[in-house]
Design brief:
The protein has 280 residues and is of the alpha+beta class. The chain is built from ten helices and twelve strands.
Length: 280
């Protein structure tokens, strides 16, 4: 059985408070995009000499030092197996969503594994319960169970309807640019002074996209741009190409631009970077 975990972008991201547990409360709009990994699960023959109940192989665009046994897909399987009877499986994850990009690739893989196991083995868990399982694996994992535009609060795990911006973005083009830099989320949080924005990102995305540039902000951009000026350059280049809105996704380091018409991007503009173009 095969499934295709999708990536997400953040439409705005504001750090609004520090929590007693050391984490931070945020406000953001999660928006799924048509950039996918591929995940396949097959039954493992009982005679197969595997020490793991979920034998995972990862291929594609993977980062060096990837440990398959510790992959979040395996963690998702093990989490469900505590409460549900499931056979041993072979899993193959083909990575296309770039890692360490703020696009939620790992979280999507975990959530889609939960969804796939639920369907394949007829566990009848239900979306609400699957979201609770997913939230144990990562703050934004629960979003990918439904993978519909959502307004997220708490640490990103409390979801409510975003009054979908789909009407605003339907037919638009999206360009995602991933520079070869890694942003430290821990260091970025340390440089942010939490505060409520003047206008909530959920309210801004209800407005025409032409208003977003001046109002819709990602608090992580300031420390990320300071540490990696190339990210600020990419954002400006996206605007130079005609983007209606451009932003860093999550805590980075992927930058995205939303265009009313498909842009013509000279080969030299983002040379040496990974560039993904898609229709929304």
């Amino acid at each position: 059985m095969i499934t295709f975990p999708c990536a997400k972008i953040n439409l705005g991201l504001n750090v609004v408070a520090t929590r007693p547990d050391g984490y931070h409360d945020i406000e953001t709009v999660f928006y799924p995009i048509p950039l996918h990994d591929t995940l396949e699960v097959k039954l493992m023959d009982e005679r197969f000499p595997s020490e793991l109940d979920c034998d995972l192989k990862v291929t594609g665009d993977i980062i060096e030092g990837c440990c398959e046994a510790d992959n979040i897909v395996v963690k998702a399987y093990n989490l469900l197996r505590k409460n549900y009877r499931m056979p041993r499986v072979h899993a193959h994850l083909y990575k296309h969503i770039p890692s360490q990009a703020g696009l939620g690739g790992g979280s999507a893989d975990a959530a889609f594994m939960i969804r796939l196991l639920d369907e394949r083995f007829r566990l009848n868990i239900g979306n609400a319960e699957m979201e609770r399982y997913a939230a144990q694996l990562g703050a934004d994992c629960a979003f990918f169970i439904s993978a519909e535009p959502a307004y997220a609060t708490g640490i990103g795990d409390i979801l409510s309807p975003a009054d979908s911006p789909k009407g605003n973005l339907n037919g638009y083009s999206l360009v995602v640019v991933k520079a070869p830099v890694a942003v430290s989320t821990k260091d970025a949080y340390a440089q942010i002074v939490p505060q409520k924005p003047q206008v909530c990102c959920r309210d801004i995305v209800r407005q025409p996209i032409d208003t977003w540039r001046e109002q819709l902000t990602n608090d992580f951009e300031t420390p990320a741009f300071k540490a990696h000026p190339i990210l600020a350059d990419i954002k400006q280049q996206l605007y130079n190409l005609g983007a209606a809105y451009a932003q860093m996704s999550g805590s980075g380091s992927a930058m995205f631009g939303i265009f009313k018409e498909k842009p013509q991007i000279p080969t030299s503009t983002f040379e040496g970077f990974k560039v993904y173009e898609m229709e929304l």
